[in-house]
Amino acid sequence: MTTESAHTPKEDNTAAPKRRGLGRGLSALFDDDESDDTAAGGAGKAERRMLGVDEIIPGPFQPRHRDGIDEAALAELAASIRAHGILQPLLVREKPRMPGVYELIAGERRWRAAQKAQLHEVPVIVKPLSDQDAMEIGLIENLQREDLNALEEATAYRRLMNEFGHTQEKLAVAVGKSRSHVANMLRLLTLPHEVLELMDEGRLSAGHARALVGIEPAEAKTIARQVADRGLSVRTVEKMTTAHKEKTARPSSGPRPERPVKDVDTLALEQDLSEMLGMAVTIDPQGKGRGTLTVAYENLSQLDMVLLRLSIGN
């Protein structure tokens, strides 16, 4: 998103009709000087002014449900604000039925950093917004900034679809993502609550979670706990889920000989050997303590290195 200065922007006198919708972001609010209450979804005219930081309160429509603001990054922003001021105004609305109190719609990091920088006033754009407009703008603005975790992002997409009737295609255009990205993020919300909690706590990455989509809830929870406790890699989790799907898949025709499913220790050993050798290692158990170990080399130099290590071992 382009940084805006706090002065009034050049007025756009083009005759192109203004439409409310996704993809306009906050730029629509900077340029929208219409006084007609039916414009911009009944939002009315925007006003630029200075407000005391103590006149502003956090808005109720933010996608974050945990404290997702990094304190170190906030300190850096505060230092920048002390040196240069706030270059892009915050977006606020007057709180319904509470004159003189303003709710943040966009710009919470700047507002918190301004407090750290001990600023008494901040530049704002005051816009009369309905609850629906406030939530929609807040969600889209945060999604465009790409500072949400995967769970918050997915939840924001779902809210925009459920509460505003937007399609995945429109959401993708609004936030500059592909439709498949939006679809994949939404699929994360099909995971069990326990798995989502581990994501929210930062103990399970989006990559781990994506690998768990589509398997039984009980198995997904079991693997997720192993990831949180043992720090398994995404590649290991993908192997575990693939093995589980193969085990539970119904044969298309006739009986299929059962292959032993790799347990978590075998998969962890594969990972350790691969990292040790710098080459892909596959362990294929064949039952009764037997199996094969395959090392995939890409050139003769790698093969020579393996042979050298084996000869040293002897």
Give the secondary structure arrangement, pairings included.
Elements lengths: L26 H5 L15 E6 L3 E2 L13 H14 L5 E5 L7 E5 L1 H9 L4 E6 L4 H15 L4 H15 L3 H8 L3 H9 L5 H8 L5 H7 L4 H14 L3 H15 L15 H14 L2 E8 L2 E7 L3 H14 L1
Parallel strand pairs: 2-4, 3-5
Antiparallel strand pairs: 1-5, 3-4, 6-7
The spatial strand order of the largest sheet comes to: 1-5-3-4-2
Structural class: alpha/beta
How much helix, percentage-wise, in residues? 40-55%
Number of helices: 13
Shape: elongated
How many structural domains can be distinguished in the coordinates? 3
Give the integer mean of the pLDDT values: 76
Q: If classified by CATH, what would the architecture of the largest domain be? A: Alpha-Beta Complex
CATH topology of the largest domain: Conserved hypothetical protein from pyrococcus furiosus pfu- 392566-001, ParB domain
Strand content: 5-15%
Radius of gyration (Å) = 27 Å
Number-wise, the strands total 7
User: Unreliable segments (pLDDT under 50, ≥5 consecutive)?
Assistant: 1-43
Summarize the main sheet. 5 strands, mixed
Question: What is the CATH class designation of the largest domain?
Answer: Alpha Beta
The string of secondary-structure elements, in order, is: HEEHEEHEHHHHHHHHHEEH
User: Between the first and last Cα atoms, what is the distance in angstroms?
Assistant: 61 Å
